Amino acid sequence: MSRAVVIGAGIGGLTAAIALRRKGWDVTVLERAPDIEVVGAGLALAPNALRVLDTLGVGDRIRSLSALQGAAGIRRPDGRWITRTDAGRAKARFGDDVIVLHRATLVDALTGALPPGTLRLGLAASDVDPATGSVGTAEGTLTADLVVAADGLRSFVRGKLHPHHPGSRYTGVTSWRMIVPPPGGTLDLAESWGGGKVFGVTELGDGRVYCYATAPAPAGVSAVDERAELLRHFAGWSEPIPSLIVAASTVTRTDIRCLDTPLPAFHTGRVALLGDAAHAMTPNLGQGACQAIEDAAVLADSVPDLARYTARRLPRVTMVARESRRIGRLAGLDNPVTEWARNTAMSLAGRFGPDLVLRQMDPVLTWRPPA
Q1: Staple partner for 369: which of 53, 184, 296, 297, CB 3.0–4.6 Å?
Q2: Per-residue pLDDT tens digits for 194-213
Q3: Of 178, 152, 21, 42, nearest in space to 107 by CA
Q4: Closest alpha carbon to 286 in 40, 79, 83, 69
Q5: In angstroms, rounded to a whole number, what is the distance separating the alpha carbons of residues 60 and 286?
Q6: List of domains in the chain
Q7: Please, is 111 exposed, middle or buried when counting C-beta atoms within 10 Å of its C-beta (0-12, 13-18, 19+)?
């Protein structure tokens, strides 16, 4: 039986472990943390990712957690719509819902699909040899036919395989995330754009509300009270934004970094890079976790030919990452004239071509996993 070692028990690493096991591989997942640390808050699983989860037997469980309903779109800070569509229209086009859930819920579902003993917590990979597939740990060396490096944005494996790559760069934008109790009444899924800032609101399947915000900021800066900092940026915006910020008990702040320069390959020797380790992207398309899930499916279908994995994934994720970066720059416009031009163009497009925005997502959301 072929043996794989997966470095990192995030969404991509866990999905890869499940996919490889279903192909008959013996898999060990190494996670340096003593417990699976659930960073982040909410995330969206789009139809392209749900199709992979279906092949792994966990899709229906995720869908049972509810789906986006009603209107969705982009607003001005005063609450007026710039453009909007309907979740039902999106489902009709792409054949499935978008599921928004807490990251911990997805991690729990993926972990539960692995047999006991697969996941080794508190055991970090300290070195990797792509020629031999050996992985150094504090407990000794593991040797594998395949090493999957799913060790995130600051991947030490990526640095070893591509020492001259510039790595991730700060986008000039920081982010805040929070989950608040149900406020009562109906909430529209919406992002509000204005002055270079973004505030997003969506409901999780359990009724709580997931909020995220971005704003330009110097790298590495933090506030003593991040909730107060959020209010400083968004207090004058339309309800329910200020009330949601006030209701937050915890606010997490993270600078947004991405790999603006694509890697030349996602593999070297027996080692394959996956997820943020391979192609960290901005969150503007909501495709970070989805693309890691896609990676896992294609990797399992490609092994042992890792060159085929690179050939199938590198062009696609480069396209998705660039589109996400483009949307981020569009949302971040902070000149009144360019904002007006953007809003007008988007409003007209939505009025005269209601499926235009959805059609632009066809290359991303119509993707299907290997048969």
Answers
A1: 297
A2: 999 999 998 887 778 999 99
A3: 42
A4: 40
A5: 20
A6: 3-168+259-365 (3.50.50.60)
A7: middle
